[in-house]
Amino acid sequence: MLAIDNINVYYGNIHAIQGVSLTVDEGEIVTIIGANGAGKTTILKTIVGLLRSKTGSIRLAGEDIAAISTAAIVQRGIVLVPEGRRVFPRLSVADNLILGAYARKDKEVKQDLDRVYHMFPRLAERKKQAAGTLSGGEQQMVAMGRGLMSKPRVLLLDEPSMGLAPLLVRQIFETIVDINEMGTTILLVEQNAHMALSIAHRGYVLETGTVALTGAAADLADNEQVRSAYLGE
Questions:
Q1: Is the dihedral of CA 132, 80, 137, 204 positive or negative?
Q2: Helix H or strand E segment including 30
Q3: Do 28 and 67 touch, CB atoms closer than 8 A?
Q4: Radius of gyration of the chain (CA)
Q5: CA 210-200-123 angle, 5° bins
């Protein structure tokens, strides 16, 4: 469904992403793991057009989307849930969620809003509350719910567990699996490599802007290099 081929991304003179290629097939959860500064977030930003690659292609269902606007990419079905949640703090939970559907023209927005509330009952309880007053875990629920309101074909998740307590981390990852089982393809960037590999089908290990390893998630979790560098074993 999503195919990235030989992208090269720069920050000024810094060559941040160096010839990276990866694929995400329909129905998969694919994870990108790696150290801070490896380029994981840069890849996601490039996919949605916030950054541009000097070379290569980014294709969604065969269409090259590398040169189109971020708004057009969202309309085609790729949605980024950014690192750090980025909720609109003064708006209510409900308004944050509805903003996720800004580009939609279908008549199923209310139905999908109800689905988000069913998935995240805490948000239903706090729908009138300002999003900035929520806990970190609740704000992550808002961010993910807002992304789902765009009705994505591919959902990009950037560090969804960052700053959360272990119990909330487990809940967030269980929700990611639920979202995938309901038909959404997921590309997951995550520092918690153990959790990411436990739910993903396949993974890529990124080191200083290049793909160092790729394979089935279970194989990566058993790889001695990965276990030593990213799983603390």
A1: negative
A2: strand 29-34
A3: no
A4: 17
A5: 110
In contact, 164 and 140? CB cutoff 8 Å: yes
Residues 6+ apart with CB under 8 A from 157: 81, 144, 147, 176, 186, 187, 188, 189, 190
Domain map (residue ranges) of the chain: 1-77+152-161+184-233
> Model-level pTM?
0.91
1-77+152-161+184-233: which CATH number, 3.30.70.1230, 3.30.1330.40, 3.40.228.10, 3.40.50.300?
A: 3.40.50.300
Interatomic CA distance for residues 2 and 22, integer angstroms? 8
pLDDT tens column, 138-184: 998 999 999 999 999 999 999 998 888 888 888 889 999 999 999 99
Task: Tell me which residue of 221, 104, 222, 80 sits closest to 157, measured CA to CA.
Answer: 80
